[in-house]
Structures are given as structure tokens and as C-alpha cells.
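Shipment paperwork, digital attachment
Item: protein structure file
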Amino acid sequence: MTKQISIGKKIYAIGSGWLNLARQKLGILDESIENEAVKRMAICLSCEKLKNGNFCGAGCGCYAPAKTLQNIETCPLNKW
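Attachment content:
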């Protein structure tokens, strides 16, 4: 069971993930965020629910590369 968060926090989490994805592409992402995201993405890549190599099929439908770069929400399958 995943933890429930408010719509405001959900919007913030989505924005945070996408902003960090842009920072990552520009090479200015904080190293600690990058390290955690690499671990999370490795877990996602080994998951049978990942679709097209990028989208979570476990209920949230999130773009995994962005979701792994935020620290508000967790994996819907509690894998990270």
C-alpha cells in the first residue's frame, strides 16, 4: 500500500522531478539526488511493470526518469 499525499504535494513532487530531470540534462543536478535516482531507476528498470522503458505501469503512470529524481513520492509497489 502506498502512502497517500495531498494534491498540492503531488503537484510539487511532479514539478520537482521534472525540474531535477532538466538539471540532470544540464549537468547541474546535486550529486546526492543523482546518486539516489540512479539506485531508484535501476530498480525501476528491473520491474516487470515498467512500460516502454520509461513509464510506470503499476498504477501511477509516471515517467520513471522524472519520478526517481524527486523525494516526496515513493514507488507504488514500495520497491523504493
